[in-house]
Structure formats: C-alpha cells, structure tokens
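Slide 14.
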Amino acid sequence: MTETVSPTKAWLMAARPQTLPAGAAPVIVGTGLAVHEGVFAPLPAVFALVGALLLQVGTNFANDYYDAVRGADTEDREGFTRVTAGGIIDPQRVKTAMYATFGLAIVIGVYLVYIGGLPIVVVGLASVVAGITYTGGPLPYGYRGLGDVFVFVFFGLVAVAGTYYVQAVTYASDPLPLGVPPETVPVAAVVAALPAAGLSTAILVVNNIRDKETDAAAGKRTLAVILGYRLSRIEWTALVGMAYVVPVVFWADGYIPAVLLPLLTAPLAARIGRTVWTRTEGEALNPALEQTGKLLFAHSLLFAIGLAAPAFV
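Slide 15: predicted structure.
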C-alpha cells in the first residue's frame, strides 16, 4: 500500500541516513591509525569520508530499486519501508538518483586519484560496480550468498586501508603514483580494518536473518537463506567477537592501553546477541539492526581514539 509522505521524507527514507554512521566508521578508524603513524592528512581524510558516505547512499538507492524490480521486497517483508516497492517514489527516479550519487562519488574521487594514483582508480571503480551489482545487473551477487563478502571487503578492509592509504601516500610519493608506494598500506591498516569489516557485515547478517523467509520465497539466496538460522547466528557471533579480539592484539603488540577502549561496548554487543540468537521477527530484529549500527560506530570511534591517543599524550 502506498504511503502518503512528503518528498523530503521520501528521499530520506530512500537514502537511509541511519546507515551513514556505518559508512563513516571505517574512515574514522583509518584516520585514527594515520594519526598514530604520523601520516594524518586532513584534506584526503575529508574527501575519503565524503566519498564513503556517497557510496553508502548510492548502494542504498541501488538496493531499494533493484530489490523492488526483482520482486524481493514484498508486503510480507518486515524491514523498514522501501520507497520503490512501496510506490512512494517512481522507480526510474530512484534509479536516476542511484547513478547521480555514484557519479558524485566519482567526482569526489578525482582528487583522491590525484593523491593516490592508479590504486585509487581501481578501488574506486570496483566499489561503484560492486555497489550496483550487489542487487543489480544480470547476476546480482547479493542474491547468491556473496553479500556478506562484499560488505566485509568494501565497507571494512577497503574503506579502512584505503583511508589510511590516501593519507600516508601524501608523505610517501609524488601525485599520481602508478603503484602502491612502500609503507602506505601496512599490515596494521589491514588488521585494524577487521573490526569495522566484521561489525559492518554483522549488520547485514541481522538484516538477512530477519528477512530469511521472505527472501527465500522471492528467490533471493542470501547467506542466511543458504546457512539457516543457527549457522547465521554463529556467523554473527564470530564477526562481532573478532571486533573485540583485534584491540587486544594491538595492545599485546605494544600499543598503549587506550587501544582497549572498544571493549567498553561489549555489554551492548551482548544485549544485541541475545536478541539475534532468540528472535526472528522484525519487531525485535529491526531495533537490533539499528543497535548493531550504533555498535559499529561506537566501537570504531573508541578504537580510533585509542589508536590516535599517543599523538596527544
């Protein structure tokens, strides 16, 4: 049934601003590590943040549009209202907004390409293509159990390490490098990305547990549909648990105790976990979905503070 909402509210529903902290979280972590390593560069960090948020919104538009036209969003779905399937915004306008948003991300990326060179061209274009083909194109991988891999890689590993790279490369190379200069993507940047990667993917796992039955009926084979409830819950627990192991690894490697600040969020993770392990309906999992997003942001912010702390003490 079509809802009567204002145009502004409709586009906000499509953009899903509640997901933006998840887009910002990995950039915050990458910047915190850059401060720790003495390679902080404010302008590349800001451009990385804006680019990440645009990719997040563009992916949201793509999912809204393609899930609707493929019939995955039905009246039985228990998630938040989708504007295309709900008849709130014309499908073609949502599709146009998707391409416009990805286009803006590419424009923002021009500066980052100038700083980071060919590696940023590859990563940027791959991110845009991945955002569209998640639910779009002839073979949408989100319908084949690969959505979790996409989120882990692009909204975790690539986002954190890429944020670090565009700052570190300003100290290590002339503009437009053709390769990755030494020390611009250290092992620490990849390991520091694991909590954001895990918690970002955990958001998707909650979403897919909630939608397991309706996705299966619509032919959308998410990993939750393939694995079932029990294994999906084990996946969620492993992803979240990893987020609490990594700060301990950094501390054991000689970082100051402030790097353990993310452990303060463990009680929230435990509360969400109880819901994920015992409930399947949207009434319970919609709040758990939002809380997992808040967990990602809080954990990432505290992790970044802990990483950056030595620069201020």
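Speaker note: The mean pLDDT is 94.
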